[in-house]
Write the C-alpha cells for this entry.
Amino acid sequence: MYMKMNIEDIQILCNRITDEAGKVFVAADKEVLVKILSGFLAGGHILFEDNPGLGKTLLVKVFAKITGCQWKRIQFTPDLMPADIIGTKVWKGVNSNFEIEKGPIFTNFLLADEINRAMPKTQSALLEAMEEHQVTIEGNTYKLGSLFTVMATQNPIEMEGTYPLPEAQMDRFIMKISMGYLDSIEKESEILRRRVLWKRDDPTEDIKSAVTQDQLVALLNEAENVYVDENIIRYITEIIRCTRKNSNVRLGASPRGGLALLKLSRAFALINGRNFVIPDDVKLLAANALSHRIMLNVDSILEGVTPESVINMILKGVEVPKEYTRGI
C-alpha cells in the first residue's frame, strides 16, 4: 500500500526536484531536467550520450543525491569484468567456505560512467538487472530494489576507445538524452560563476535530498494511474509501426519502444499536473524514446540522415488524434 497523492502535491514534489537540480546543474532549459525526471518516474533506465566535458556524470550524481537514494558509480574500462559489476563468490578463510560478495550493482542509482568503454561481454552483465531487477551469481538469483535505476553515460561511438552497446542493451534504456552545448554565453558563464562560489569541482557533497524514498515510490505508482485514451494508444502504435516502414531504417523499433514511449508520456503528463496524456507529450518524447532503438541503412548514414531526423519525419507524417478523453 502506498501513500495517495493529489495532483497539486505531485507537482510540488516534481518542481522541487527539478528546481534543486537546476541550482547545481546549468541546463539549456528546464525541459532537459523534466525529461530526465520523466524517465525515472517511468521506472526506466536512462542513457546520456554526449561529448566529454558536458556534465553528464555531474547531472546523474545530482539527481541521485536530490532523490535521497543510495547510489554507486562504476567507471567502465576495457579491463572491467562482469564480476566487478554484479559480484562473485569469494573464499572466506575464517568460515572455511565460499560467500557471496555483492557488487556495486546492489544500489538504487547505478551510475555506469562511460559505459561504452567496456567490452560488450562486460556491458551485457547489466542485461538481466535492467530487465528483471535481479542478478544471478553462481546460479543463485538476488533481487534488486524497486527503485533500481541505471543512469549510464557514453561518448559518441566514433570516439577512440569506445565499443558500441549491444542492440539488446540499447533497447533496455527507456530513453536517450543528448544535452549538447549551452546555447548562450550567459548560461556558459554561469558555470564558471558557480565554480568560483563552490571553491571546488564537485559540489554534490552538500546536496540535500528534496524528497523521501516513500514519496518517490508514491510518484512511481501515480504515474501508472495516468489515463491514456484509446486514440493516444493508436497514435503511439502508428509511430512505432512507421519506424519499421521508413526507407531509411534497416531495423525499426520493437514493441518495447512503444511501451517506453507510453510510460514516458504518462510520467511527463504527471509532472506537468495532468492525470491524462495528450499528443504533445508523445511528440515531445518520441525522439528520446525511439532514436536509440532504430538502425539506419548504411546509405542513409552516409547521406547524413540521423535517427532523430527520421523520428521527426515520422511525426510529421502520422495524423495527430484530434479527439481524446482528458482523464476519468
The chain has two domains: 1-225, 226-328. The two ends are 22 Å apart (CA to CA). The first strand starts at residue 45 and ends at 49.
